[in-house]
Amino acid sequence: MEKYRVLLADDEEEIRSGISRKIDWSALGFTLVGEAANGEEALELAEQLRPDVVLTDIKMPFMDGLELCRRLKQFLPGAGLVVFSGFDDFEYARQAVGMGVFEYILKPITASELSEVLTRLRERLDGQRMERRDMETLRRRYEESLPVLRELFYTRLLSGQLNPEQVRERAARYEIDLPDGLWTAALVHVDAPGRDELLLLSAQSFLQEHFHLDGGQGRVVLYGDLAALLVRLESMNRLYPLLEELDRLSRLSQSYLGISLTTGVGLPCQGPEELHRSLDGARSALDYRVLMGGSRVIYIGDLEPNAAAALSFEEEDQRALSAAIKLGTPEQVKGNVQALVARISQAGLALPQGHLFLLELVTCLLRLTRSAGVSVEEVFGEGFTGAVSISDFSNLKALGDWLEVRCLRLHELLGRQRSDLAWSTVERAKDYIARHYADEQLSVESLCSHIHLSPTYFSTLFKRETGISFTAYVTQVRMEEAVRLLRETDEKTYRIASQTGYSDPNYFSYVFKKQFGVSPSKFRAGGNP
Predict the structure, then answer these.
(1) Mean pLDDT computed over every residue of the chain
(2) How far apart are the first and last CA of the chain?
(3) 121 contacts 29 by C-beta, under 8 angstroms
(4) What 3-state class would DSSP assign to 13?
(5) CB 227 within 8 A of CB 207
(6) How far, in Å, CA of 393 to CA of 351, rounded?
(7) pTM, to two decimals
(8) pLDDT tens readout for residues 404-449
(9) Residue 201: count of CB within 10 angstroms of its CB
């Protein structure tokens, strides 16, 4: 098994050396990856090395062990922390326990005592690691949560929040059989006073148990205060047998359950990913129950015969297209455009009848272009005014090709813009550091407050763009300025320390010597390498 990485922090070199030599790290399941002589250095090393365990003294210069533990908990929450102290102080121990420190050890430390602590710590880390890696445990937890995940999936499916790829991927993951083909949705309203959840559950169970249709398969899920019946049909010929079956169930529910059911049925659609559109029709059908009265089945196609010709670029279409262009891959952009064009074809409309749909789609692209600060001409070409007609295209393929080119161009420009923004953000950060490196309170938090980014995101972005951490970069800037002042001025070392962001001249000298191998005074005297 992979050994756990240990960072040791103590300002006494003799103690560090003793611990390093006397502990059989490998036999205990550890490897010592770094040593630090103070809290500041330990924090910087921890940021670079990401240790699994940190052994630290409480009393250290520049940053004490408790403050170090508090900072480590922010970005290494899973690390095991062991604190040494030369003081039998209850307050120290209380604070250490409050920060989740594994063990509080009083000095002097013996090899056997520390080995025993490390053994226990390894057992806990092993347990945590095994728990994370225990696939059976994960599978059991997953299976326990599967009913909730399936319910959430159906809710999002029927609300139109999933694209076709997500529908297929999640249905397979949750072991739900949703084959392609002709589908329709029905919404069942329990005609009872109030909102009795037990009656709704009874209706769901009743429908699931008694629904039967030759040439069709159905499943019942809860959707808000209604039961939704999702039915796959072998062909359109099975639609009216479905209505007859739902009417039979409506009558049967009165004798079985003593409750009346009113069912709204939407238009059939192609593929389970389109069920939210059929559901909209089912919801519209239910709106007629007040006018029509009684427990019955209402098919939207009977009441609104032109509903099949309805085609609109809806809010979920805008979200899906925008997400693909902003964050998706070129393949996802193409797939989204193809699905939208296929909608026109599936609606059975003549080309001119899809004009409004096209205008709404182009308006979405124009809005997205302008909100990103991109030139309309860069996406649509010189002289584009937004006036485009579906009759400009000879067929749906020509329309799809035209849209695909524009969407891919916008996708490319936004990607380039994000890259430029990352570079710009890092340059702003560098400029801020250049103007504030003398402030000892300079931190990633203060900088992020200025540029309005979260510290976690900024730290990742900064290291990705520069190759070094924020702390290392600030130290580099401060040391470069310190070298300049030592070479070009006669300022005292303690004043140079203050001018480069170090309130403690001793810590300044420590960092300088660590960086250049000589003290500031020797550097000035010509001892620099």
Answers:
(1) 85
(2) 43
(3) no
(4) helix
(5) yes
(6) 9
(7) 0.45
(8) 999 999 988 888 877 777 888 889 899 999 999 999 989 888 898 8
(9) 13
